[in-house]
Fold this sequence. Notes:
The protein has helices at 20-38, 41-70, 84-105, 126-133, 141-154, 161-178, 186-218, 223-232, 237-255, 263-270, 273-297, 303-325, 331-352, 357-379, 404-407, 409-423, 429-443, 447-473, 488-505, 508-514; strands at residues 75-77, 80-82, 382-385, 391-394, 480-482. By secondary structure, it is mainly alpha-helical. A hairpin with a 5-residue loop joins strand 3 (382-385) and strand 4 (391-394).
Amino acid sequence: MNLLPTETLAAPDIHWASISPVIVVLAGAVLAILVESFAPTKTRRPIVIGVSLLTTLVALVTLVARWLVVLDAPVSVGEYVEDSLTVATQFLLVLVAFFAFMVMAERTSVGDGAFAAQPSDRPGSHDEELSDRKNYQRSEMFPLALFSLAGMMVFPAANSFVTLFVALEVMSLPLYVLAATARRRRQLSQEAALKYFILGAFASGFMLMGSAFLYGFSGSLTISQVATALPGTTGMDWLALAGVFMVCVGLLFKIGAAPFHAWTPDVYTGAPTPVTGFMAAAVKVAAFAALLRFYQVVAALLQWDLLAVLLGVAALTMCVGTFAGLLQKDIKRMLAYSSIAHAGFVLLGVLSLTHGASGHVIFYLAGYGFATVGAFGIISLVRGVNENGEATGEVTDITRWAGIGRTNPLIASAMLVFLLSFAGIPLTSGFIGKFLIFSDAFTAGMGWFVALALLCSAVTAFFYFRVVRLMFFTESTGDVEVVQSEGFSTVTVVLCACATIILGVFPNVILSLLDKVVILLP
Length: 522
């Protein structure tokens, strides 16, 4: 029998330094799981919290070092691209995650926190009652959030449809679980997780089908090679157009753009409030960064066919978020529709393709992310009061927020800062972000859409200031209080409020750094 000669396969060239921030986060997640599994019950939770916060801080230091490197020499490691867009986005993601983890760690003076004592307990069962009575609290939400963060960090760096899909699932699957872990209204929380999972599966299906079409068109699963094949391949334009549009649909679902937004209000309402803040801020940053890369590398080559459709999506998103938000009486649903409107605004920046637009999009997302985490951190502290004067669950009915500005001016003032930023009022990060995005869109010839965005921005200010009026100019109902924080949420709210103001008053330092954000093209 003749044996064929064996070929020596070369080991893959892995640029470990480029993926070191992701490795740090994944290592922290694995370490947190080991602590959760083997540490004593009394010390388990504080150790997991410490590991999670330390992991994000180490990742931030690593990303600062990588930023200095990529400014001189961007790195493309096959299916992973490390350029200034990747590093800037990852830095923002880790910073937002640090603040979100602080809010997740909060248990307040009541000692309950936002998460179920044991999420595996059936709602209303004897097991759940026993877990609550023993004041038991699991901490697996932190390693789950770290795994999700790792997926988010890979998402904007993906140069392959396989990597893009794997990053999407690593980002999304932990969030499906986290959305079902609320301490109160658990059936609503589990319903929200199920909706998120089912609709997320449809989005993943669109992305996979689009990737298959583009593979059939180009013969490659690498995004940069698809971009190279687009100008030189004739006769299959419809296949490329369908593939690009389907991938965009998958990304538009993650940013909550209409008509792919149906999951947003229900999931934001049902999920634990700290998880809602994490999703609303971090997922949008990751998805918009991935959309920036995909649009500028691939979709922009077909913009004559796609631009009108995507501008229609942006206009519909702004209108749905604005006018549906006017009707909301629940503050979490109101902020959900607000996030939809903001997604429409940012889409204009993505589609503008002007010089510096990528950095301006990241600046907008930074201001939005800090304000969002801070706002949901405040919501987690506003509680109802029963007839015995004991604090109960979160109060999300907007009308019951009356008088908070008089009973707790510090928290109400911070909420005011966040709402002013959402509305785009001067001296806040929201104003600078909207000015930059709308200027880029106007420069790109989207004047009518900028006019619509300005109109929607003015209308959204109505429901933001309705909350302000209730907090500061309406008498308290007496059945609501702001519970005392352990310190985690208070520090987070103060830091986010300061960041919102600093980015609005002194934006030049950050903008000068973000002006260096570029996307590595094939």
